[in-house]
Structure formats: structure tokens, C-alpha cells
Amino acid sequence: MSQLRIDADFASRNVNEGFSGGEKKRVEILQLELFHPKFAILDETDSGLDVDALKVVSEGVNREHAKGEMGTLLITHYTRILRYIKPDFVHVFVDGRIAEQGGPELADRLEEEGYDRFTGANATAAGALNQA
Fold first, then answer.
1. What total number of domains does the chain contain?
2. Is residue 95 part of a domain?
3. CB atoms < 10 A from the CB of 75, how many?
4. CATH number, domain at 90?
5. What is the model's pTM?
6. 3 part of a folded domain
7. Helix crossing, 51-66 with 21-35: angle to 10°?
8. 101-119, pLDDT tens digit by residue?
9. C or N terminus of the chain, fewer CB within 10 Å?
């Protein structure tokens, strides 16, 4: 809890009861670190996080991934989280299909060019981290 900057009082509260958006995200990552899943799907984990919370949450994901026992699919509409969590692969989904795929450089290109070349709307980037 301390690594995720979660106050110890949260341990006695019901999950997500009265939590802010950032607190909910931190507790999600706490659960990830406690349960050690073989595969994690993180859907818009960066949504609603300020810069400090984004770093803390990213560090939690990276800690668990570094153990080499978890694959991760990180779904995002923005590439800022990919500054802290480095994907092995990047896929762009449009209407449920992969429209383009590549390495981390694709995320950089998306940041510069946006998603308009795919559809103009409804495109999502998913970064995947391989299981070691």
C-alpha cells in the first residue's frame, strides 16, 4: 500500500466505497500486485489520473510485470501512460479489429499524428507487454 501511496486507513474500508477515481485506480493495481494474475487486462488505467498518480500506478504495473509471470494488455486512448509503461507491441483497434500494429515507435507516431488516419473516431491503442 505504501508503494502505491495508499493510506493505511483504506485497508479497513469497503472496496471503492467513497474512493476518488485515482484512489480506485491505485487499489486496482494493489489487487493486481496481491493476486499475481498470469494475464492482466487494464482498460483505460490512465483515465482520470493526474501526473503523480499516473507515475505511481505505472510503477505498480511495472513492478508486477518485472516478476516475469504476467502478460498485460493495456488499453488506452492516450499514449501518455506509455511514457512510463513501455510496451513490447502496440496495436491500434478500430471497430474491434486490428488496423495497425508495431513496436513502441507506433505509439510515438500516434502521439504525433493522432488516430484520424484510421477512422477519425473510435480508434483505441492497446499496448501489450509480453510475459517473460
1. 1
2. yes
3. 17
4. 3.40.50.300
5. 0.78
6. no
7. 10
8. 999 999 888 888 887 787 6
9. C
Compute the mean pLDDT over every residue in the chain, rounded to the nearest whole number.
84
| Contacting residues for 105 by C-beta, under 8 A, at least 6 apart | none
For 39-83, how does the pLDDT look when each residue is reduced to its tens digit (9 = 90+)? 999 999 998 898 989 999 999 999 999 998 899 999 988 888 998
> Regarding predicted confidence, which is higher, 72 or 121?
72
The values of phi and psi at residue 68, to 5°, are 80, 15
Say if 24 falls within a structural domain: yes
Report pLDDT for 8.
79
Does residue 132 surpass a pLDDT of 50?
Answer: no
CA atoms within 13 A on the CB side of 10: 20
Say if residues 23 and 10 touch (Cβ distance below 8 Å): yes
Q: Hey, what's the cell of 52?
A: 503523480
| Rounded Cα gap, residues 8 and 2, in angstroms | 8
- For 64, the grid coordinates are 508486477
Tell me whether residue 2 is in a domain: no
Give the gyration radius of the chain's Cα atoms. Answer: 15
